[in-house]
């Protein structure tokens, strides 16, 4: 059996950073550090929230969901990224590539939904604090988590089948060290209109709507905070949102940058696209545990207690 059958290649070839192949092995060290921070940091936060009764509150339940999503995203990209950069092992089976694509896009949509849920948590806490405990019950939080997870898997579920129906015969070389839907569909020698339309629908109906609602929630939060007479109380209220705002920026700014370069940066060097895509996938899982550990004293205290118990 040759490299290609009737419909698709037996495997794809992954790419590190175009034009920097000779020096990309030097990036293996920093990548390993980033993965260690992402995997270790998010695992520690999950363990701290689970073990510390004082963190059994809505805000920290949502933080646990965010850490789980970041952990899953890191695990989804880790095998191919490290194989490509450390071992220069570039091949990935067609079916394995479809599975990785599904996982990456699913957990990306899931993270966006969790950030929206966290903005709702901040809205209720600041704009309607007396009803906070009655609005965000354990049942409501579980329902929101289930809704976010279901939405991400249901909306991304058709993508592997939309790729599988395409005859991919232009090439079998992908532009990244992991599998993405836009990257795979460009290799097809057939009409990809359905893939483009559905991909745009997924982005607008999930990530686009989430960002819009997050923006609206912060407009309402700011309006409520500005009505507080005391400057100290205003700063205290806003300070509870800082970690979430930083997490939102860490997730959406690289994503918007990738989209802008992809749409309008036709003359931008190829490695710029790849670097921005890598920042979009790798930075949020690394930054989120650092942000919440640095900005939330309850998390710091719980982590300290957890390590103290381990030491004892």
Secondary-structure blueprint of this entry?
Blueprint: E1 11-13, H1 28-51, H2 58-86, E2 91-93, H3 94-127, H4 132-135, H5 138-156, H6 158-164, H7 181-185, H8 193-226, H9 231-239, H10 242-264, H11 270-295, H12 297-311
Antiparallel strand pairs: 1-2
Helix pairs in contact: 1-2, 1-11, 1-12, 2-3, 2-11, 3-5, 3-6, 3-8, 3-10, 10-11, 11-12
Describe this entry's structure for a reader.
By secondary structure, this protein is mainly alpha-helical. The chain has a single domain (11-311), classed as Rhodopsin 7-helix transmembrane proteins (Rhopdopsin 7-helix transmembrane proteins), CATH 1.20.1070.10. It is built from twelve helices and two strands, in the order βααβαααααααααα. It has helices spanning 28-51, 58-86, 94-127, 132-135, 138-156, 158-164, 181-185, 193-226, 231-239, 242-264, 270-295, 297-311; strands at residues 11-13, 91-93. Strands 1-2 form a two-stranded antiparallel ribbon. α11 crosses α12 (297-311). The longest helix is centred in the middle third of the chain and has 34 residues, at 94-127. The chain is globular. The model is unreliable at 1-5 (pLDDT under 50).
Quick gist of this model?
By secondary structure, the protein is mainly α. It has 12 helices and 2 strands.
